[in-house]
Amino acid sequence: MNEYKLDTLCVQAGYRPETGESRIPQICQSTTFFYGDTQKMADLFDLKADGFFYSRLANPTVDALEKRVAALEGGAGAIGCASGMSAILLTAMTLCNAGDNIVCACEVYGGTYNLFGTTLPKLGVECRFFDADCEQDELEKLIDGKTRFVFAETVANPAIVVLDFDKVASVCKEKGVLFIVDNTLATPVLCRPLSLGANIVVHSTSKYMDGHAAALGGMIVDGGNFAFKGNPRYPAFNEPDESYHGLVYADLAVPFGTKCRAQMIRDTGAIMSPQNAFLTYLGSDTLSVRMEKHCSNAAKVAAYLAAHPKIEWVKHPSLPGDKYYERAKKYLPNGTGGMMSFGIRGDAKTCARFMEHLKLISQETHVADVRSCVLHPASTTHRQLSEQGLIDAGISANLVRLSVGIENPDDIIADLEQAFAQI
Ligand SMILES: *Cc1c(COP(=O)(O)O)cnc(C)c1O
User: Cβ–Cβ contacts within 10 Å for residue 410, how many?
Assistant: First the structure.
């Protein structure tokens, strides 16, 4: 299957029916699965056989989506989680104990910034933030023997910073540390981090992957491309897991993914629901066509905004002259996505007035679905951040985040135009 192109994988990868079976995955609403054979059941618990026994660990509908996303990202396997945040939390819990540390780009999504910067430190895991555009040696200096992974977003939400993959990948490779990428806003249609040196990819499938604002979800994709065996940075992968009758994860084909499911999905229960997996699976059928339209609409809207007298600045990597224009050509050659941010000449109140006058584009705490929407991060998603935190995250008081949908671009621009006329 993996030899097919991305747009083929979007509709064909994942679930393959046998003769007479349903064409698309069914919503398998069952907590448990029947076995008449004790040995078969034991083999499942020993991870010697594939199968389902309890939906807190794995479920057929979730499995279909996991296989599809793993194929899209070119990974060895994937785990469906209840939300994007739970995917990121479980990834960290699989790798870190008290006393360990994480190295993370400071431009990441507000929820991730909070999890790594405030919540995990309460459990004894320290986070060291770096400016994604820092020099290579500054990043190197943050990594020590207790660093378990380096984390960044392909396209940062909402600062729209395009990641310098070569820099981070070469540092991680040299230090033998895992490189984890949140690929939510790029999606595998625009960028495949595993082919650029990343080892694990996480997603909030609540965004483009579902694409219809219908289902929360997260995904963890294991690249299966990291050498855990004998790596002194990862003792938990090289010593027997007493909570899983002595399993040594480094000896398995997919060490990270297996540990994550066998320990963390088991212990937290933060798996994706079958209903949400079904909706996300349907949504992902059209991912490649939607991304094409999001990208072409956004490029038109960004060009319109850049020429507008009431706009101070626009950030979208499709604009020649954007700080990330060249880097995006290298890492996101098929388009730079529908997310942009811009600064209105004025303050937070001017932004509020502008947003209240929009008729087609709605105000929502959401991005990356088929309908265009706006948000004022400084007063909503990022309001828990300090003034310095806002500056580090690249969020000014006049910043408006715009997620361009798949409506006709002329209608989107006309709506923006009439709202600008009111301020
Ligand atoms: C939304 C988002 C998340 C969190 O995902 P949820 O599904 O809302 O929990 C994580 N990372 C990025 C980049 C996001 O945009």
Answer: 9
